[in-house]
Amino acid sequence: MGKPVTTPDARSTTAASPRESAPAASLKAPPVQPKTAAAFGATATLLALIVLSVAWEWWLAPLRPGGSALVLKAVPLLLALPGVWRRRLYTLQWASMLILLYFAEGVVRGWSDHGLSARLGWLQAALAVIFFTCALAYVAPFKRAAKRAAKEAAKQTAEPNA
């Protein structure tokens, strides 16, 4: 068997094939030290946003008494939760784009609503900013390592031709 190679999610490993050629093996990104605090922050903030969305639209300040269908806005966050929990880079990337919609809604409702609903809107916007920051802080080192590995691979493939 080949030696273990760290995958981009930084937690699982796969065995490298002994038949891999040197250039193909060099395309692997070097291991990156994951920022566990950022991953924990993203997970905790996502959970808080899910709880806030459900509580806001069912009990705290629903648009209609007894709750509203806006409680369904928590569904996309629930779909992202397993991948964020497992620190999947792809999920953190698309969730960081999705969270911008929740930021926008929080700002709009913070400005336009009154009372508790306005405060909840600002809380949602703040949680969205925290999630976005944590997700980017976790993903950025992996993106930099991949870019560095691609640059080195391009340099290695250019050297035999020179």
UniProtKB/TrEMBL annotation:
<keyword id="KW-1133">Transmembrane helix</keyword>
<feature type="region of interest" description="Disordered">
    <location>
        <begin position="1"/>
        <end position="28"/>
    </location>
</feature>
<keyword id="KW-0472">Membrane</keyword>
<feature type="transmembrane region" description="Helical">
    <location>
        <begin position="92"/>
        <end position="111"/>
    </location>
</feature>
<dbReference type="Pfam" id="PF09842">
    <property type="entry name" value="DUF2069"/>
</dbReference>
<feature type="transmembrane region" description="Helical">
    <location>
        <begin position="37"/>
        <end position="59"/>
    </location>
</feature>
<dbReference type="InterPro" id="IPR018643">
    <property type="entry name" value="DUF2069_membrane"/>
</dbReference>
<feature type="transmembrane region" description="Helical">
    <location>
        <begin position="123"/>
        <end position="142"/>
    </location>
</feature>
<protein>
    <submittedName>
        <fullName>DUF2069 domain-containing protein</fullName>
    </submittedName>
</protein>
<feature type="compositionally biased region" description="Low complexity">
    <location>
        <begin position="10"/>
        <end position="26"/>
    </location>
</feature>
<feature type="transmembrane region" description="Helical">
    <location>
        <begin position="65"/>
        <end position="85"/>
    </location>
</feature>
<keyword id="KW-0812">Transmembrane</keyword>
